[in-house]
Amino acid sequence: MNEPDRDPLIDAAFRALPDVELPAQLRRRIAQIPIEHPRTSRWSEFSFFRNVTAWAVSGALGIICGFFIELPAPGEDQVAVSFPSKLERPVAVEALDVEAQMEAEAELDPLDQLIAQAWQDDWEQVWLDDEESVPAHDSEERTQ
Amino acid sequence: MTQVTQVEDDQALMVRIAAGDAQAFRQLCDAHAQAIHVFAFRLLRNETEAQDIVQEAFLKVWLHAKKYQPRARVTTWLHTITRNLIIDRYRSAREKAQHFELDHEREHAPYSDRPSRLLEKKSTAELVAAAIAALPERQQSALLLSHEQGLSQNEIAEVLDCSVDAVESLLKRARTTLRKTLETTDLGKN
């Protein structure tokens, strides 16, 4: 490994630079970081699961075994508790959208569907003619 | 404390920080905050911005300690984080300057003076600082990391994300330019 050659002039230049002290204010700001951004330790992450019980059943199929894991009681600050309800929402909304679309389509008779399609085609044509409002790559994709 | 002991200590501290140990984090800050602050200040030449960058760098260390790989020294990792944050800030400043068409002088190096202004500087210290700041950012970083922060060429290559040959070239160009500027000053005549 080639280390830099020492250059007396450059060394003198760096010696001439004023010292930069670490301001006490910055020291305090850094010390505050763990307080302002608390993190759980690895041990507390593992200890999230409590009362793990092993079980085993012997029968005709052989031995089947597993674990019962008791989760901690729901708390306000536990994200895991709210997770299933968050998961349900987008799925439910999507399902409702599909149902609403199917119902709307079912209500139109064939003539209404033709008129609706014509409106849709006209609208797309107007939209495509207005090239200035469409970014170049976007309009290319749409005209293809 | 020898360098080897410091490296081992730093790595042990990083393991504890990854496990959420705030005391270990403070020890790491005590050991490195001063050097990182000097590095940020020299590149930015602005105390407020340097403080913000140092705080942000240590916040990243605290939040992403698990990502640290012991193959690199902690100090190399810290300098890399700091420099990346400074570059982000530099880009953001340049975008603003271009957007408002305000700052033509900062196009080359946003936190520096132009070489033509260097002679206006009064003290040697000011002149040296301005001459370093007038270098392109990669040359500045290489020079500061080598001469002030004491990093090896391999470590500088890691911080700058380039080869050791490229670091040598950067240092050579930086020294030549700096020498040329300083030779006309009292420092060069002595």
Report on the structure:
The complex is a heterodimer of chains A (144) and B (190). Chain A is α+β, with helices and mostly antiparallel strands and 144 residues long. Chain A has seven helices and two strands. Chain A has helices at 8-16, 24-31, 33-36, 42-46, 79-107, 110-129, 136-143, and strands spanning 50-59, 62-70. In chain A, strands 1-2 form a two-stranded antiparallel sheet. The relative contact order of chain A is 0.04. In chain B, helix 5 runs antiparallel to helix 8 (164-182), helix 6 crosses helix 8 and helix 7 (153-160) packs across helix 8 (164-182). With 190 residues, chain B is an all-alpha fold. The longest helix of chain B is centred in the middle third of the chain and has 27 residues, at 74-100. Chain B contains nine helices and no strands. Chain B is 72% helix and 0% strand. The model of chain B is unreliable at 101-111 (pLDDT under 50). The interface between A and B is large, with 33 and 46 residues.
Low-confidence stretches of chain B: 101-111
Residue stretches of chain A low in confidence (pLDDT < 50, at least 5 long) are 76-89, 130-144
Tally of helical runs of chain A: 7
Radius of gyration of chain B: 18 Å
DSSP helical segment count of chain B: 9
Tell me, briefly, the overall form of chain A.
flat
Average pLDDT confidence of chain B is: 85
Q: Which strand order do you get reading across the main beta sheet of chain A? A: 1-2
Work out the helicity level of chain A: 55-70%
